[in-house]
Write a structure and sequence with these properties.
FAD/NAD(P)-binding domain; 11 helices; 26 strands; 27% strand; FAD-bd; FAD; FAD binding
């Protein structure tokens, strides 16, 4: 074996998975077909749950702008993150390229750039990955190679869904005003439905704006067609009447609302994660976060499998747990895409939805979904089971700490509490609760069953005080 696991794709999903595998003692090779990192950032921020994920591994070393609210279909009534039970009741403005830099720096092995996967063979003992530079052998392969995943296609995993109905352009641009006004005085609406098109403009750092537009001109284009300055100028003119105007294009790409999901995330010794497993409209900013959380769920399970310590069936829980989460994201992005169609009937529907978002309970429900905070796997007797463990302030061995701090090494936690309503809790390495009891209760049989199911061996307890 050249390594225990080969990861195809060095985007955020592949890099986080590789760091998780190394943290758990597995050897990894990371392949990337591109010759090097582009420095481009399709995603601009981390949703609250992804901020928690990186924080629990000591990876969120520097926060960017704190964005206090999310959005649903660009509606002016924002999703309020402040009621969410998290240390990160906001989005963290960290561009995707920065996340990739942080993760790659944590790897002990260099990413193998310029390695294109051309074929995959698997047998009872492992997987042979044929690249344009020669074959490599590992126990498992994980395809994190994007929506057009070569790994998924080579496996023949069905990828049902629907083709795009709406295509658009995303670009980072600078703007100029012929009248010489400063950007702060432009007062540009963030979402403009006009003349059968829609345009969104969001300010970034350094006088750069993130522009998204979808209209008749973008329909029928191929994803690889170049985005031209004339095309963006026409979109700006339709929305703002010629002021401001396009300065320069820093980066541009095409996107669509193609919605597809792999039927399974595992085919023998090959698994799929991130966009290789699911593609959807970018509305709501959930793609990066969905992929990171795939990797976080898979990493510890795959590492235990290659080390030979995993209980039977552990690796199959990855697809079982993550497939429904992605299906919900696909559904909400489809709904958001409908609400953004520039049509009089849809405008009426948007008005109804705006009123609903003013209802605290409805707003909280969607905020929990979009942020990832409310993701819950298989429930159990205690209301915490399956949910993410709150990042409590604790005292362990006489020193202050937190649940996230105790998760830095990626090991499971059995915490027994002195004081408080919670008596004991078994926390998986991905921060989700496997077993819990309230203070004064005992359930040793349940603890033994949960331990055997998820870890196969007893877990030493940490006595902590809240």
């Amino acid at each position: 074996m050249d390594a225990q696991v080969i990861v195809a794709g060095a985007g955020p999903t592949g890099l986080l998975l590789a760091t998780e595998l190394e943290r758990a003692g597995a050897s990894v090779i990371v392949l990337e077909r591109l010759a090097g990192r582009t420095g481009q950032s399709k995603a601009l921020s981390l949703q609250p749950r992804s901020a928690e994920v990186l924080h629990s591994r000591g990876l969120l070393v520097s926060a960017g702008e704190l964005i206090p609210a999310g959005h649903f279909a660009g509606l002016p009534v924002r999703l309020d993150y402040s009621p969410l039970p998290t240390r990160f009741p906001y989005q963290v403005g960290v561009p995707q390229a920065r996340v990739e830099d942080l993760l790659e720096a944590r790897l002990t092995v260099p990413v193998r750039y310029g390695h294109d996967v051309v074929d995959v063979d698997q047998d009872d003992d492992g997987v042979t990955v044929h690249t344009d530079r020669g074959p490599l052998r590992a126990s498992y392969l994980v395809g994190c190679d994007g929506g057009r995943s070569t790994v998924r296609k080579l496996l023949g995993v069905p990828f049902p869904g629907r083709d795009p109905r709406v295509s658009g352009v995303v670009a980072d641009v600078t703007l100029v005003d012929p009248a010489g006004r400063a950007p702060a005085s432009w007062d540009l609406p963030s979402l403009v439905p006009i003349d059968g098109a829609v345009l969104t403009l969001l300010p970034l750092d350094g006088g750069v704006f993130r522009l998204l537009t979808a209209g008749p001109e973008q329909q029928g284009t191929d994803r690889d067609d170049p985005v031209t300055a004339d095309e963006i100028t026409r979109a700006l003119d339709r929305a703002y009447g010629g002021s401001p105007r396009l300065g320069e294009i820093r980066w541009a790409s095409r996107f669509s609302d193609t919605t597809r999901q792999a039927e399974t995330y595992r085919a023998g010794r090959v698994l799929l994660a991130g966009d290789a497993a699911h593609v959807h409209s970018p509305t709501g900013g959930q793609g990066l976060n969905l992929g990171l959380q795939d990797a976080f769920n898979l990493g510890w399970k795959l590492a235990a499998t290659v080390r030979g310590t995993a209980p039977a069936g552990l690796l199959d829980t990855y697809s079982a747990e993550r497939h429904p989460v992605a299906a919900e994201v696909l559904a909400n992005t489809q709904a958001q895409a409908v609400l953004m169609v520039p049509d009089p009937d849809v405008a009426a529907l948007r008005g109804v939805f705006q009123d609903l978002l003013r209802v605290p309970g409805a707003n909280r429900h969607l905020a929990g979904r979009i942020s990832g905070i409310d993701v819950r796997y298989e429930p159990g007797r205690h209301p915490l089971v399956g949910a993410r463990m709150p990042d409590l302030d604790l005292e362990a061995d006489g020193s202050p700490t937190t649940v996230a701090g105790l998760l830095h090494d990626g090991q499971p936690l059995l915490l027994r509490f002195d004081g408080g309503d919670l008596g004991a809790v078994l926390v998986r390495p991905d921060g989700h609760v496997a077993w819990a009891v309230d203070a004064g209760e005992r359930d040793e049989e349940g603890l033994a069953a949960a331990t055997e199911r998820w870890f196969g061996t007893p877990q030493p307890a940490r006595n902590v005080r809240r």
